[in-house]
Structures are given as structure tokens and as C-alpha cells.
Amino acid sequence: AAKTAGRNAIRFFDPMMQAAVSARAALENDLRTALSAGQFLLHYQIQVGCGVRPVGAEALIRWQHPERGMVPPYEFIPLAEETGLILPIGLWVLQTACAQLRRWQGNPATEQLQLSVNVSARQFRQPDFMEQIRTVLLQTGARPDRLKLELTESLALDNVDDTITKMNALRALGLRFSLDDFGTGQSSLSYLTRLPLDQLKIDQSFVRNIGIQHTDALIVQTIIGMAQSLGIDVIAEGVETDAQRAFLEKHGCTLFQGYLFSRPVPIGVLEQYLQARAASV
Ligand code: C2E
Ligand code: MG
Ligand code: MG
Ligand code: MG
To answer: Across the strands, what pairs with 45?
Structure first.
């Protein structure tokens, strides 16, 4: 026991560890004020069908930190989830995305587009999540059938009965659901088929390896086949090359998202592209 305590004592004064702990504390501190300071914004990444026809976009949060510059989501979303700050942040994302959807309505270049929003487990599990969505839709006037929620496999299968109940209630309002990062979790096929999904989203790790790793190309084909047998859409994320797009299309995937088409961009950049495209067709 003395030996263990000694090791811990040494660790406690480890300067590297100390630095990491205080860096995290500083980030957490900044994260607490980021929302009220207006430091978050959404970027939008276009989603296209065959022939590069725009079908929608995914809203992706960005944190414009006054000293650190743009902080990527992987640096603060896990922290926001641990601290519970994801609840107000997630609500802000929904409000901002729905306000954007409302602005797209009534314009032929944008009114057909769907907007996908990422939802964290903690956010989805709130007892009043359904009420929050309903309020946001009412406040913004966004069409519910243009809003798509992206859930991960682990979220969806963590408490599958609660998930299905919530999804069905939200679908009754008109919302759509996509299963994000699909293929990376350990989902049981039987549970998966119970989920009332509209779309599977093939994780970018498989898409990246299409021409490199034969097993990943097979996984991609399997996921496309699963979506087809379930009668739902399938979209590939992280499409970077024309060869990847061609492989996906050849195997029946008709929806794409990735740097090949566009990076996530500020709303003005996306809208300029959409208007220019609408004017040219
Ligand atoms: P995700 O939902 O799977 O989003 C896709 C990520 O892949 C985005 O990273 C996007 O910028 C990136 N990406 C898109 N196309 C390509 C490509 O062709 N190549 C490569 N290498 N990357 C590509 P981002 O924006 O850094 O977001 C990372 C993750 O953070 C998201 O993964 C999502 O899980 C989370 N996230 C982002 N915004 C939100 C949000 O508003 N709420 C919640 N809860 N999570 C969010
Ligand atoms: Mg996503
Ligand atoms: Mg994803
Ligand atoms: Mg991902």
C-alpha cells in the first residue's frame, strides 16, 4: 500500500501531468463562458446526390476562441459532454440550425434542402428533449421534415427501447434520423433493424480505405446492401476522391458528403454556391 501511495504521490507532482490537468481546467473554464460570449458558430458541409445535385447539408459546430483561434470539435465536444455543457450548447445548435432552415424556405434554390444536426447522447436522453425540439420548431418556423438528427450507434443502442420511443415521437412530428459513423460500433443487427431510421451514414474510416483495404471496401458494400434491404437511404461521409465516389456509386450509394465536393464552410459560402448553381441549371 505504501508503495502504491508513493507512486501516486510521484504522479501527482509529475509536471507533465500537472500541465495537462491545468490546461484542461483552463479549457473547461473558457467553455463555460463561450456560449454567452457568442463564440460558437456553425459551418455547413454540403451533401449531394448523383450528378452533384445538392440535397442538404450537415451543420458542424465551431468554437472561435479569442486566443486559441478555431478550436475543433474533437477538442471540446467530449469536455462539453462530461461537464453537461453540451445541453445548452446542443440547444443553441438546434436553434441556430432551425433558424437557418427557416431562411431556406420559400427560396427555390434552397427550400428542398435537408439540414442534419449532430445530437449527443446526453442531449437525446433529456426527458424533455422532445419538448425542446417542438419549441425550437415553433419559435423558428422551420419545417420539421427538413430537419434530420444524426445519432451514433452507441447512443441509439445504449437504451434501445427509450431510443425507439423517442425516435417515433419525433418522427410523428416529421423529423428524420440518420445513424452517424455507421460501422464503427458493435451494433447487433437485430437491434439495428428495430430502429426507425431514414438513413445510414457510412463512416469515413471505411470510405478512406476503399481502394486500399479490401475488407473495408467489402464493409462499404455490406452497409449499402443493408440500407437497401432495410429500404432506407445510405450516405457516405469523408468522400475525398473521384475513385471513392465511383466505387460507392457503382455499388448503389447515391448520396455523398466529403472534401471532394466541399469542406464545411460558413453559411455565406454555401449559399453563394447554391444560388450560383440554381442560376446555371
Ligand atoms: P461527424 O458528425 O462524423 O462529422 C463529420 C466530420 O468529418 C466533420 O469533422 C467533417 O469536417 C469531417 N469531414 C467531412 N468530410 C471530410 C473528408 O472528406 N475528409 C476528412 N478527413 N474529414 C471530413 P468536424 O467538423 O471536425 O466534427 C467532428 C465531430 O464532432 C463530428 O463528427 C461530430 O461527432 C462532432 N460534432 C460536430 N458538430 C457537432 C454538434 O453540433 N453537436 C455535437 N454533439 N457534435 C458535433
Ligand atoms: Mg455527423
Ligand atoms: Mg460521421
Ligand atoms: Mg465521424
So the answer is: 58
The CA 130 to ligand 4 mean position distance, Å, reads 25
In angstroms, rounded to a whole number, what is the distance separating the alpha carbons of residues 27 and 262? 30
Q: What is the maximal distance between C-alpha atoms in the chain?
A: 76
Going by alpha carbons, the residue nearest to atom 25 of ligand 1 is 60
Rounded CA separation 185/268 (Å): 35
Task: Say how far apart CA 228 and CA 239 lie, in whole Å.
Answer: 20
Phi, psi of 20 (to 5 degrees): -65, -40
C-alpha 237 to ligand 4 mean position (Å): 8
pTM above 0.90, yes or no: yes
Please give the average per-residue pLDDT across 77-100, as a whole number.
97
- pLDDT (tens digit per residue) in 41-65: 999 999 999 999 999 999 999 999 9
Closest atom, ligand 1, to C-alpha of 90? 42
As for the ipTM of the complex, it is 0.98
- DSSP run (H or E) holding 115: strand 114-118
Q: Phi and psi dihedrals of 258, rounded to 5?
A: 160, 175
Give me the pLDDT at residue 1, please: 44
**How far apart (Å, rounded) are the C-alpha atoms in residues 147 and 226?**
24
- How many residues would you count in the chain? 281
Count CB atoms within 10 A of the CB of residue 168: 10
Using alpha carbons, select from 111, 56, 60, 102 the residue that is nearest to residue 233. 56
Q: 237 CB less than 6 Å from ligand 1? A: yes
Residue from 118, 147, 199, 259 to probe ligand 1 pocket by mutation (most atoms less than 8 Å from CB): 118
Q: Among the atoms of ligand 1, which is closest to the Cα of residue 240?
A: 18
